[in-house]
Amino acid sequence: MLGNHGRSITRTIFTPLARALAAMRVTPNMVTVAGTVATIGISAGVLARGHLAVGAIALGVVLFCDSVDGVLARLTGQESEFGAFLDSTLDRLGDGAVFGALLAWAALGMEPGGVRTVSVIAGTIAMVGVGTVPYARARAESVGVVAKVGLAERTDRLVVALAGAAVTEWGLPQAFYAVGLSWVAAASLVTVIQRIVFTKRALEAA
């Protein structure tokens, strides 16, 4: 949802930056790799160590800048199938790092109790959803169906999970951490089901 509505805004914002990068001969694939390296580094070095607010904000900035490579590719005429493949593949690595860090802190940083148990279970389901949601879309496209439907896109899942982590360090109960991961877990499952149903109906109609 957030991703769809935000693309036109980010395209407008990042066009000047893309022009500057193009002048420096920076390629879209370089930007993609750099963003993934930053995401993994912040997740492992900051978020997983319990610096939840700083980590969430830093990852939010990286997430907001995620459109730069696409804007740069369109601006310089370097759009390619490999670029799209690389971007999608590295997104999975970045998402895995974020939710892996959130899961690690829940398991190792929280006091034993119901909130930690819920957070660990929800974080585990969210980790599975990180791979399954885009996989469902990719498999649908392999049989000729564009299954972009779903309750929660990548941006939605990351924003909710990181917001839940940040407000926890700002003094709100750790239940907000569990709620954020639980929403991501549930929304991921719903999204997968929606894409399965959509693909089935599209194939039957065809």
Structural class: mainly alpha
- Give the overall form: flat
CATH superfamily: CDP-alcohol phosphotransferase transmembrane (TM) domain
Number of helices: 8
Query: What's the total count of β strands?
Result: 0
Protein name: Phosphatidylinositol phosphate synthase
GO molecular function, one term: transferase activity
Subcellular location: Cell membrane
Pfam family, one: CDP-OH_P_transf
The gist of it:
The protein has 206 residues and is mainly α. Helices cover 82% and strands 0% of the residues.
If you had to describe this structure to a student in words, what would you say it looks like?
The chain has eight helices and no strands. With 206 residues, it is mainly α. The chain has one domain: Four Helix Bundle (Hemerythrin (Met), subunit A), CATH 1.20.120.1760. Helix 2 runs parallel beside helix 5 (81-109). It is flat, with a radius of gyration of 18 Å. The mean pLDDT is 91.
Q: Layout of SSEs?
A:
Elements (H helix, E strand, L loop, with lengths): L1 H22 L4 H20 L4 H13 L3 H9 L4 H29 L4 H29 L11 H16 L5 H31 L1
Question: Which terms would index this structure?
Answer:
mainly alpha; Four Helix Bundle (Hemerythrin (Met), subunit A); 8 helices
